[in-house]
């Protein structure tokens, strides 16, 4: 994907300049092109671009395949780190395990995007279910900090964690059944 010879002859540009006139849902393709051609090679700019691409694109998981996103995150991550907004942080800064939730239609429960907020997962389940005209489910998992690729909150306030489930040797996901949703929402609101 990355061509070092091309990168040597092409100065690295700023992501804000490259993406200034691009629609938000076109950013994943632009990011891949910018990385592949070496237009974007500065480590800081790569992190800024990845955060912006993921957080501004509507449905980033549909804009690019799961494996491509993993490759893009591997491009910016160093061993033992995760992306916290646009900065690399050691995974040791995270709790050993994170309780995370994900709203998804059946068959899509193993995506990258999860949240620490049951309320946010519930919102996605009801919103997406209505839009798709099919019920969405809420899943939960206790994710090891080693699975975390990124944490994004500032842009969309979704308490979002991107996790790579393949690092977890096919972990089990638990479904939170709809009859539990109101109880979970009340418990989260009460802080219990």
Top keywords for this entry?
alpha+beta; 3-stranded antiparallel β-sheet; 192 residues
Overview of the structural elements:
The chain is of the alpha+beta class. It folds into 2 domains: 4-76, no CATH class; 90-190, no CATH class. The protein is 41% helix and 20% strand. It contains 8 helices and 8 strands. It has helices at 4-9, 15-18, 27-37, 43-56, 60-63, 66-76, 118-132, 178-190; strands at 81-84, 87-90, 97-104, 113-115, 137-144, 148-152, 160-163, 174-176. It has a 5-stranded mixed sheet. It has a 3-stranded antiparallel sheet with strand order 3-5-8. Strand 6 (148-152) and strand 7 form a beta hairpin. The longest helix is centred in the middle third of the chain and has 15 residues, at 118-132. The N and C termini lie far apart (47 Å). The mean pLDDT is 90.
Short description:
The chain has 192 residues and is of the alpha+beta class.
Task: Indicate the proportion of strand residues.
Answer: 15-25%
The total domain count is 2
- State the helix count: 8
What letter string, H or E per element, gives the SSE order? HHHHHHEEEEHEEEEH
Weakly predicted, low-confidence segments = none
Proportion in helices: 40-55%
Whole-number mean pLDDT:
90
Secondary structure: elements and pairs:
Elements: H1 4-9, H2 15-18, H3 27-37, H4 43-56, H5 60-63, H6 66-76, E1 81-84, E2 87-90, E3 97-104, E4 113-115, H7 118-132, E5 137-144, E6 148-152, E7 160-163, E8 174-176, H8 178-190
Parallel strand pairs: 1-6
Antiparallel strand pairs: 1-2, 3-5, 4-7, 5-8, 6-7
Helix pairs in contact: 3-4, 4-6
């Amino acid at each position: 994907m990355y061509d070092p010879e091309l990168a040597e002859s092409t100065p690295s540009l700023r992501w804000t300049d490259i993406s200034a006139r691009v629609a938000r849902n076109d950013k994943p393709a632009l990011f891949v092109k910018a990385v592949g051609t070496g237009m974007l090679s500065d480590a800081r700019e790569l992190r800024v671009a990845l955060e912006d691409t993921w957080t501004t694109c509507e449905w980033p998981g549909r804009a690019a395949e799961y494996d491509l996103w993993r490759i893009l995150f591997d491009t910016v991550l160093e061993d033992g780190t995760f992306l916290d907004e646009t900065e690399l942080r050691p995974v040791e800064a995270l709790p050993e395990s994170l309780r995370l939730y994900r709203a998804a239609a059946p068959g899509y429960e193993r995506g990258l995007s999860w949240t620490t907020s049951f309320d946010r997962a519930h919102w996605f389940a009801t919103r997406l279910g209505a839009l798709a005209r099919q019920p969405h489910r809420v899943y939960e998992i206790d994710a090891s900090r080693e699975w975390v690729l990124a944490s994004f909150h500032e842009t969309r306030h979704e308490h979002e964690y991107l996790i790579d489930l393949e690092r977890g040797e096919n972990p089990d996901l638990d479904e939170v059944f709809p009859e539990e949703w109101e109880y979970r929402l009340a418990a989260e609101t009460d802080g219990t």
